[in-house]
């Protein structure tokens, strides 16, 4: 078996697993999640057919599988992740929220995805946040996504933005990490985190186009406010984030602004996260 995950990555998520979903309590990530959900509603779900099958690649505790399968009771899914510490939370959610009969949870490394799923099996593949950053051979994994999609299927990806990684590490005084992001296209956002790849819109869309998954949407979010160091932890908010989101009215106004900008291609370079949707030709 090949491997795309180091022992360091596995150990990191073992420690994080039980508290991972507390990210929902942090105001910055709540905004980020609301923007991602809106992006899915606008640019992905309208073309996902009734009775669709989905794959959550590196789905962890199942935060997004949970949202999608509860929103679309006609869909069935597979959550695929290396960490048993993370996926036991995904199984518990499926029982608690009544879709255990529609979700299969599988353990495995994304480098070996094709050994665990069938070609042409899925209408939708999602892979969100740092998952692809921890993969050794990103083009190989994306080719396996392409093989696993049905003709007309889509993949929706959220990955860390190289340009934001440079900015964030300068902001927090981690100049060596800022330089690594700029030169080596990899970084970490906190000392305890494993090193991960970071991406540019041109790089990611180019790879997808080359492997036969033409890009239909490339943008970024959030773009009006950025996380601080505390947002790399499971609890709390950085001072700058607290100051920006001073009260509910301010939060609502910023969210409205972000929603107005969401989807503009020129914002891909500016977003904390890159959001890319690509489709497999029929």
From TrEMBL:
GO terms for biological process: methylation. This is tRNA 5-carboxymethoxyuridine methyltransferase. The keyword Transferase applies. Keywords: Methyltransferase, Transferase. GO terms for molecular function: methyltransferase activity. Pfam families: Methyltransf_23.
